[in-house]
Each structure stands twice: as C-alpha cells, then as structure tokens.
Amino acid sequence: MIKSYDYIIVGGGLIGFSIGYGLSKLGRKCLILDAHDNSIKAAQGNFGLIWVQGKGAGFPSYADWTLRSSELWGDFYKELEDDSKINLGIQRTGGIHICLDEEEYENRKNKLDLLRSHQNGKFDYQMLDNKDLSELMPGLGSEVVGGSFSTHDGHVNPLYLIKSLHSGFLKNHGEFIHDEEVRHIGSSGKGFSIKTKKERYFSSKVILAAGLGNKNLAPMVGLDQPVKPIKGQILITQKLDKHLKYPSTLLRQTQEGSIMIGDSHEDIGENIATNPMVISKIAKRAIKTFPEIENKQIVRSWAALRVMSPDGYPIYDQSETHPGAFAISCHSGVTLAASHANDLSRYIDDGKLGNELNSFSHRRFNVS
Amino acid sequence: MFRELKDEQKKEVVFFFEGKKLTAFDGETIASALLRSGEIFFREAKKNNFRGPYCMIGICFECLVDVDQMQSLQSCQVIVKNNMKVKRHKNSDLSL
Amino acid sequence: MKDVFDIIVIGSGPAGLSTSLAANDLGLKVLVIDEQSQVGGQIYKSIGKNLDGKKNFLGKDYLKGQHLYERFISSGIEHWLETSVWQITENQEVCFKRNGLTGIIKSKFIVICGGAYERAMPITGWTLPGVMSVGAAQTLLKSSSVGADDCVFVGSGPLLYLTVYQYLKAGFKVKAVLDTSRLKQIIYSIPYFFPALINFNLLWQGLRWIRYISKHTKVHGRVKNISILGKEKVQGIEITLSNGGNLKIDTKNIFLHQGIVPNINLTMATGIKHHWSQFQYCWLPTLSLSGETSIKGIYVAGDNGGIGGVNTSITTGQIAALDIGKKLNKTTNFAKLFVYLKFLKDKSLRPFLDVLFKQDVNFLVPDNKNEIVCRCENVNKSEIENSIKLGISGPNQLKSYCRAGMGNCQGRLCGLTVQTMIALKQNRKLDEVGYYRLRPPVKPITLKELSSFEEYSPDEKQ
Predict the structure, then answer these.
(1) How confident is the model at residue A189 (pLDDT cuts 50, 70, 90)?
(2) Does residue C260 come out as left (phi exceeding 0), alpha (psi in the -120 to 50 range) or beta?
(3) Residues A283, C447: contact at Cβ < 8 Å?
(4) So what's the pLDDT on residue B94?
(5) Residue C460, number of CB atoms within 10 A of its CB
(6) Phi and psi (nearest 5°) for B33?
(7) Fold held by B12-90
(8) Which residue of A313, B51, C103, C446 could cross-link B62, Cys pair, CB 3.0 to 4.6 Å?
(9) Chain C residue with minimal CA distance to A41?
(10) Topology of C365-428 in CATH?
C-alpha cells in the first residue's frame, strides 16, 4: 500500500510550518517537504516584527486580516510556548515607525489617518514628535523628527517561532523531510503525486508554501503566484543590556540582548550577497536614530529575499482546475503566523478559503 | 601562572585593568600583559562564569575586553598603549 | 574603482611574504594587508623582534624566517598592518578596517594567505580559564617570551611536539605531556612513510624533538577519558592511562592540540567553492594547480589552502605569484614548473603526517552532554542533540534552532563539532552535511566604523 498523506505542504518556512502546525492539530496527516540546508530561505532572514500599523492602507481586507492575526497572537504564543517549552521572546506592548524627516512624518500621518478611517477607528495609533517619542525610546537621536506608535505592534524571535511550530508539528504526528525540492506536481481525480529530487510522494491535497519557489510550482496546479524577490539586509550587534523598550522598523532588541538593525530594499533578483555600501547606509541611519549605538560591534550581517507580489500584499488561492491545491505567499510570515495556524488552516481543511480572502486571489493581477 | 623569561629588558608601558595599575612591555598585547600579571578572567560569559584567552591569535573571541570607549575588543590583537583603561567585557545575554 | 594595485595579498605569514616578494620581483605592484601589528603571521610571529639571538630556543626553522623577513622589509613593498579584512565583495573589492575607519580597495588579483588555526578540543572542562591551545602557548613564547611553569600539554600532532620542545629549551618546566595519538595510526601511516623520506631532514628533526621531550618531561602515550578539573579555573587534569590505570595531575595551565585546519571564514564568506577533505578532516577551498579558486582572479596560498607547513606555504605563494605574473605577461610557465617540483617534494611529507596524526573524531565531540560546544553562545552538547532530533536539515537550520555558530567567532570553534554531531546522529556523510553559511563581516566592525565606509585611494592616505 502506497503511503498517502492528507496534505503535502511544499516549503518548510513560516507559512509551511504555520499551516502544517494548524492542520496537524486538526488531526490531519501532513508531510512538509523542504529544500536543502543551504538554500535561500526567507524565514531564516526575518526581522521578527509582529506588525499592524501602516499595513493595508490601500487594501482594507489586508488591514483587517492583519489586525485579526495580531489579536490571535495573544493565545497563539502561549499555546506554542506551553507545547514546546521554548521561550519565544515575545513582546506585544507596541511598536514604533521612525520618521527621519518632515516629509516622511507627514506621509506617515496621512497613511495612518486613512487606515483608521477605513477601519472605523479600530486601528489605534499616535503620531509623536521627537520629545514625546524620546519618552518611549530614551536615547532617540535629536535629528529624528518623530514617529508613529501603535499598541497593536510587537516582536518575537522568528527562528524560535519556526522551531516551536516544527516541534508542535512533529508532536502532532507531522512529518518533515528536507533536501527534497519538488520538481513536478501531477494530479488525478484521487489526489496529487509529487515528484521530488529523490522520491515520489502522494496526498489528497497539496499546499504550495515555497516562497519564491511558488512561481514555478503554481502553474502545475492551475494557479499563478507572480512573486519576485526583494532583498533586505540586516545587521546584528554584540549583546547589550536592555536599551530599547519597543521594537521599531529600523531597530529592535532581541531576547538575547543584541540589537537587530534593518531596513533596506533592493530589487536585484536572487542575490543575497552583502553589499557594503547598503549596510553602511543602514549603519549611518541607525546611528542617527540611536546615537549611543555607534561604538557597538556588528558581529553578523545577512541578507534575505522578501517574497513580494506585484502589489506587496499576500496571495491566497485555491485551484479550480486542480481541486485540493492551494498556493499561499506573503512577506509577513511572522505577523500572519497566528492566522495561518488558525483561521487559514481551518479554511483549507473545510476546502474553501473564507470570503474575507477573496480579494487576495491572484486574479486581482489580471484586471486590465 | 605565566611569567616572562629573564633577560627580557624592555621599555614598560602603564595601563589599568579594572582600575588596577599594571605594566606591559612596549609592543605587548593586552592579553599577554594581563596573563603575566596573573589575571585569568577576561570576559564574563554568563553570570559569574568567566573566560580567559584560549587561542591567542584572534580566532576564539574569549579574550574580549573593553578598552576606553571601545567595547568587545580581542585583547590578543590589541597592543597596550600608555594609560589605556581596560575592563572585563560583559556578555549581556538577557536570556541567561 | 580603478585597480591601483596588481595584487592584494591578505596575510603576511610565510605564504603572504613569499607571494608578495615573488610578485615584487616580477615588477608587479603589491599591497600586503595584515591585522597584526607586525608581519610574520603565526609561524613567523614577531620574527622582526626576535633576531637578537635571545630566542634561539624557538628553533632553526623559525629563525630561517629571518631571511624572508629581511628581504620583505628591505623590498619596500607597501604593507598595511593593524588592518583587518572583513569582506571581499562580489566585484572582488577588498573591504578593510583601519584606524577606526572602513574602506574599500580594488586590485587586479587577490591572494588570500589567511593561514590556519587549531581544531577545537571540547573535552570536559575545556572552557575553564587556564586552558588554552598549544598554539597560544607558542604565540606567547614568540611574541612576549612568556610561558607557564608546571603546565600540562594534551593532544597529538607536530605542533604539540615542537611547542613542548621550545618550552623546554626556553627553560619552562613542563609537568607532563599527555599524548592522545593512537597506535594504529602508526601502522596506517607506514605506506606513506617512504615518499615522505624525501623530507628526511624534517622527519629526523621530529624524532629529535620527541627524544628530547622524553628526556626532559614525563610523557604518557595513548591516554583516554580526559577530564579537566576545576570549578572557576583549572586545578588539574584526570586521565585514563594506556594500561587502564587512572592518573590525576595538579596544574594551573593546560595546553590542548588536535591538529590545525585552514582558516576558511574569509574564503567561504567570499563565495569561493570549497570541498570536504576526509583525509585532513576539514574544508578546503577548491584550487587549481596554481592556487586559483573558483572565482577567477582570487587565489589562495599557504596553509589557508590546505595544511602543508612552512615550506609548502612558501612555494605555493611563489606559484600563485608566478601564475599571476604569467597572466600579466611578466613571466612564462617555465618558471612556475621549477617551483612546482619543489612544491611536490615538500608536499610528500604531508600524507604521512596526516595519517600518523589523524584527527580522532572522538575528541571533536564532548563525552559529557553538559559540556559546552559553542563557547560564544554557551550552547552545550545536549541542547544541540535536542535540535538535531527535530530532524534538522543541517548546520544552518541547527544554528537557527539553538544558536550554535551565531556568536562572535562565527563557528570557528564549534563548526566542525556541529558538523560531526549531525553526521553521526543522522547517519550522513560529512561532506553532505555541509557547514554554516558564512557571511561578512568576518571580523566585527563597529557601526561608526562601518558608517565611515568610503572608496579609498592611496592618493588620499589618511
């Protein structure tokens, strides 16, 4: 008897493991197939923000979906920590978006006002000038104009998040196989036959969560995932005593004490090389934001590729031509992990993505 | 306990370690001078757990010290200069 | 950015000095960069300071470096000391840190001569202050004439014997030498002995060291179950002798050695292709016969390309320089051939030594599950095993789950142990398991130093 799974999930990153965790908790027999250890993995380069503010200013369902996920995080992290006994280093008391100049500050204010009006005031935030922001962030550079603070925001250790999902997934009898890149997905009326680097696996349903890999896989199940890489580079400092009370888009302090510094965007294809000019600019901006960091050592840096759709919003799709096939991609795998492990997993298991996700289909890109 | 060979007549330099006045030879690394002075605890790896140099060639990062305004320097790579103020480096790992 | 230099040589040990001198002799414009305050690397450490005849206990081989050193100093080759290289970019530009600033410089060719370092020996108690590597003992001796009396040396390999010999000759008291070499390795090494005989002088020298050591200190062979004792610092060491008996030695200084491995942090972070050598139990940059890597224009010379010792370091440096010289039309292939023959002669000793002192995999993995493996991040053996149990794909996923390899040293001390543990627990081949993905900066830089990054031109010297 050939072994067949309820679900094969292609991709062992934040999306794959969140959904795998959710489905395995519902009692489904799941297999996650992942690439080899040295492959490019967005999930290993994540900044770790659980972020609501500013999201979905032009896309109300995304703003709602994000807020909902942020609310689910409250119970979600407790369940993961109890289950895995891993301390996720979570903090959900608020976050700051730094505005370095007047123009940025104005644009930010307008964007957030718009978001609040779309969401009937559900979205909570404050615009703060340098003086008020300094109270939330002592040591703030005098050249910083100000920023926006929202209580919905927070951060978590993104690597331990995957570890705890992985651990929970295995506890619920999920299987994880690495070094098995998927080459071809075939389907018959009875299910899917997945040909990998070394083997062939069978399942009733298949979920594509392979990040940039989804682009080539999606057409095999009658779907479209027009994603491309947007590079980001991150620096990390030596470990320090507690300095930063809240995470921000530029700096956050990890549970070990090191300060993680971002934020950059480069549209140059699948390139994860360190660009010294770019990290130098990141360093300059970090010093401007938080001057006392200037003499601290940078001990590591990395680059990762965001999985970016044409409009920057997630793509949630289920196939009509290949029933039982789903394709998911986004670049906010941490923020949305709670929804992915709960609401989304339930939708997938019911066989139908909820109405709130209709606007996330790839068909939105075909509007001419 | 480390000691230097006799017949080594070299110019001396004064520096401070945790407030204590010590001497080094001209051109000597901080690590060597500290070891010669009987110091073996260089950095605090976790609470009350101290480490000292292991490789002496800039590979292991166990010999980390803070020097004047700079933090987390490999003392086996830094030459002592007059009146340097050296302190143990603390690994502020908030999770430990 | 224009190519101001023909060659940038990174590292000024025997290979770096030899490369730059050979290139200079061909009329090429060379820049040598070294993070130390003097040239010489590790083998010829402080050679410039030790020419007054007071350091003869360091041996003839060390003093031979004097010739290379004096030629270099009088050559006028430009060299930047106390300068560390933290990245080589995709465009083969060298990113350096110097005088509190960072900069970038480009050349037609780069020769990486970053040398080697010692394998970690994570035995029980290895993180206690007072425990150092044998290379550390030798470095202190060379650079400051500093040593410790009543110390104990533990391990196996030529560097161990050389250092004990130098210690004894310098007048320091060595309490004991605990040799971990296995008898069977002597038998396995026999087939390699005859080709090695071309280097008879070196073999004879090794035997002389061993004879001298046996006369001046206590040597225990084939020891097992090594445990370093002490709570906050070293108090002693306990072993099982080859006859099964137990021995405890009081000491405050212990020096460990289990061979050396190429320093691959810069080469891997540069994206150079590497391969696993089961024979030498380490990762090696994949090189052409002339030392060129998978990236055209970047070469590796010396121990950085594979452990070979000082003579091989000198010849590989010459070969790289000659190959570059040929590409720049300054010389012919014939010159290279002659040096290559010398290289083959020097290299023939190596297989014999590699088998005789073959890395005992047992010493790479601690016996005790609570023993620290990753010193930087305080990760012990059992924490690593728990992560491996989740079915991790390799060292990179392992690193993200338990932090081993995330610290300052970027895996220099724990990398081989982690790789070995994964291979053993998951029953996989070592080369298939792979290694940490290394990235720049390969040495730390502060934010202020990085923010000063600019294109450096020698016309605008700081």
Answers:
(1) confident
(2) beta
(3) yes
(4) 78
(5) 9
(6) -65, -40
(7) Ubiquitin-like (UB roll) (3.10.20)
(8) B51
(9) C397
(10) Arc Repressor Mutant, subunit A (1.10.10)
- Which residues from C are below 8 Å from B when comparing CB atoms? 35-37, 42, 49, 54, 117-118, 127, 129-133, 135-136, 139-140, 143-149, 170-171, 232-233, 252-253, 263, 375-376, 378, 407-409, 412-413, 443-444, 446
Per-residue confidence (pLDDT) for residue C422, from 0 to 100: 98
- From the candidate CATH numbers 3.50.50.60, 3.40.50.12370, 3.40.50.300, 1.10.443.10, the one assigned to the domain spanning C5-117+261-331: 3.50.50.60
Residues 62-81 of B with CB under 8 A from A: 69-72
Token pair of C360, please? Answer: 């005992």
User: Hey, what CATH class is C120-258 in?
Assistant: alpha beta
Beta bridge mates, A96:
A149, A248
Task: Please report the domains of chain A, with CATH numbers, ordered by start residue.
Answer: 4-49+159-226+311-366 (3.50.50.60), 95-150 (no CATH), 228-308 (3.30.9.10)
Determine the length of chain C. Answer: 462
**Is residue A143 a contact partner of residue A100, using CB atoms and an 8 Å limit?**
yes
3 state SS of C370: coil
User: What is each CA distance from C293 to A273, C116, C274, C285, C304, in whole angstroms?
Assistant: 18, 17, 9, 7, 12
C351-376 tens-digit pLDDT? 888 888 887 878 999 999 999 999 99
Nearest Cα to Cα of residue A202 among A212, A216, A217, A192? A192
Q: What is d(CA C281, CA C429) in angstroms, rounded to the nearest whole number?
A: 12
pLDDT at position C194 over 90: no
Interatomic CA distance for residues C371 and A207, integer angstroms: 42
Of B7, B77, B87, the C-alpha closest to C139 is B77
Q: Tell me, what's the ipTM? A: 0.96
The yes-or-no verdict on residue B7 having pLDDT over 70 is: no
pLDDT of residue C221: 92
d(CA A272, CA A347) in angstroms, rounded, equals 35
Residue C455: the pLDDT is 66
- Between chains, do A238 and B71 touch, taking CB under 8 Å as contact? yes
Mean pLDDT, chain C, whole residue set: 92
Using an 8 Å CB-CB cutoff, list chain B residues near A241.
Answer: 92, 94
Q: Rounded CA gap, B26 and B23, in Å?
A: 9
Q: Is residue C435 within 8 Å of residue C268, measured between CB atoms?
A: yes
| Phi, then psi, of A103 in degrees rounded to 5 | -65, -45
Work out the minimum CA distance from C97 to partner chain A, whole angstroms: 12
Instruction: At A168, list the tokens.
Output: 């929970």
Residue A178 to residue C391, Cβ atoms within 8 A: yes
What share of chain C has pLDDT > 90, as a percent?
A: 76
Confidence class of residue C457 from pLDDT cuts 50, 70 and 90? low
The span from the CA of C113 to the CA of C22, in Å, is: 14
pLDDT of residue C462: 40
With a threshold of 0.80, does the pTM exceed it?
Answer: yes
Cα–Cα distance between C11 and C117 in angstroms, integer?
13
Non-local (6+) Cβ contacts of A70 within 8 A are A50, A52, A92, A152, A153, A154, A335, A338
Domain span(s) for CATH 3.50.50.60 in chain C: 5-117+261-331, 120-258
Indicate the domain borders of chain B.
Answer: 12-90
Residues linked to residue C237 through DSSP beta bridges, in sequence order:
C228, C249
Nearest residue to C165 (alpha-carbon basis) of C61, C262, C249? C61
Sign of the dihedral through C-alpha C148, C154, C156, C161: positive
Q: Strand pairing partners for C257?
A: C155
